[in-house]
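Chapter summary example.
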Amino acid sequence: MGDRYGRKGVMRATAWGAYKGITEALRARFASGEFQPGAVLPSEAALVAEYRVARNTVRRALDQLAEDGLITTQPGRGRLANAPGERPSQASPQYRRIAADLRAQIESGELAAGALLPSESALVAQYGVARGTARQALAALQDVTVSVQGKGRFVKPR
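The structure predicted for these 158 residues follows.
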């Protein structure tokens, strides 16, 4: 296989599509029984090496699996496989709550068109979350915001 392919032929021509291929490849590994309920998944570093992609691409694939309820992240232990049909006991992920708060501010007009959204650092301080969680919350608002390199993320005009 050429260098456009990772493990088991997952096409990775672009980062935008690579995470989807990795997500599907990992789903197949769940379906085959490779990841039994409670099993610890390989580390991000191991998956990066295996699929030959950037860490953010692997994280995006893992985030999708978590969102679909296939895995749960436990601090100090890593990412664990859930039993089929099992949903994590925790409420919705923190990034969704943060994104919902910001979306409500946008929809109410508190954050008007052209307004600067809080930075990742500000969200980390305000919500007590990791920087990646804040980044994911801001990314979830791409439909109503625009990112300007070096300036920040702003509310799109309606």
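To summarize the output: The CA atoms of residues 99 and 139 lie 9 Å apart.
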